[in-house]
Amino acid sequence: MKFPLRLLALAILIFTGLPAEAADPDSVVCTAPKDFARLGTTLPATATAMRRGDELVIVAIGSSSTSGVGASDRKHTYPARLENELRRIWPHQAVRVINKGIGGEDAEQMVARFESDVLSHNPDLVIWQAGTNMMLQHGSEGALLSLLRNGIRTLKAAHSDIILMDPQYAPKVLDVPSHPEFVAAIAQAAIEQGIGLFHRFAAMQHWVDAGTFAEKDLIAPDQLHMNDVSYTCVARLLAAGIVDAVRATPLNIAIHNGRDNSVR
Fold first, then answer.
1. Where would I find the H helices in the chain?
2. Where are the chain's structural domains?
3. How many CB atoms lie within 10 A of CB 253?
4. pLDDT tens sequence across 162-196
C-alpha cells in the first residue's frame, strides 16, 4: 500500500523535528540581501592559501551553536554545512572545516583553549562564535569586549584571518534585556580590530521579519538552539561572505600580508 503524501510528511516531521519541506537541507531556500553576508574585511591568509594551492584550513570555535546542539546529527552543524558549501563553490579547492565547539562555554573558556584547539591546526581562518552564554548568564558586555580583544590579539599573532559570529536570533536570547548591547560589543570588537563580522543575529531576524521562515522553523524546541534549517542557512550566507571577501583581497595583500602556508 502506498503511503499517503500527507502521512509521509507528518512522519518526516515527527522523526526529524523539522518541517517536511526542510528535511533535506539542500532543498532549503534562504536568500538574504548581500549586506547580511558582508564581513567587512578582506581575508589575506585565506586568499594566500588558495592562491598557493594549499588546503584551506578553517577552525570554528564556539559553544553549543558551533558544536551543533539542535542539529539532527554532526553533518548538519554549521561547520559541516560550511565545508560542504565551500567545496561546492570551489570544487577544485581542498577545504577542511574543523569543529571545535563545546556547549556551555563562555569566551574566557574558549580563549583558554586557543593554543590546543585552534592554533595547533595552523588555521588560515578562525570563525569565533561567542557572547551568547555570557549574556544568558547575565555577564557584562564590557567583560565580553575585553575577552574578545585579548583573544583576537592571540589569533592575530598566529597570522590567521578571523571572523566573529554574534548570537543567534532566538526567543531565549531576545528575553535577555541586554542582548542588543552584547551584539553591539561583538561588532565593536570586530571594527576596532579590523577583522570580519558575521551578522548572524541580523540575518536570522531578517528571515523571520521577511516571512522567509517562521521563528519556529529556525529554532529548536528549547527556544534557544538552532536546527538543521538555520544551520544550513547560516552556513550558506557565511560561505557567500567568505567567497566575496577572498575575491576582494588584492593579490599583493594576499602574498605579502598573508601568513606563510608553505609548511603545515
1. 5-16, 44-51, 64-67, 78-89, 107-112, 132-136, 141-157, 171-174, 179-193, 200-209, 215-218, 228-247, 251-257
2. 30-257
3. 15
4. 999 999 999 999 999 999 999 999 999 999 999 99
Q: Write out the three cell numbers for 19.
A: 518541517
The three cell numbers locating residue 89: 563553490
Residue pLDDT, tens place only, 30-81: 888 889 999 999 999 999 999 999 999 999 999 999 999 999 999 999 999 9
Residues 6 or more apart from 39 whose CB is under 8 A from it? Answer: 163, 196, 197, 198, 241, 242, 244, 245
| Closest of 213, 160, 172, 240 to residue 30, by C-alpha | 213
The pTM of this model reads: 0.88
Contact 165, 128 (CB under 8 A): yes
pLDDT at residue 261, as a whole number: 41
Task: Say whether 76 sits in a helix, a strand or coil.
Answer: helix
CATH topology of domain 30-257: Rossmann fold (3.40.50)
Instruction: Please answer whether residues 86 and 96 qualify as being in contact, where contact means their C-beta atoms are separated by less than 8 angstroms.
Output: no
**Which neighbouring-strand residues pair with 62?**
101
CA distances from 135 to 36, 58, 107, 117, 255 (A): 23, 26, 11, 24, 39
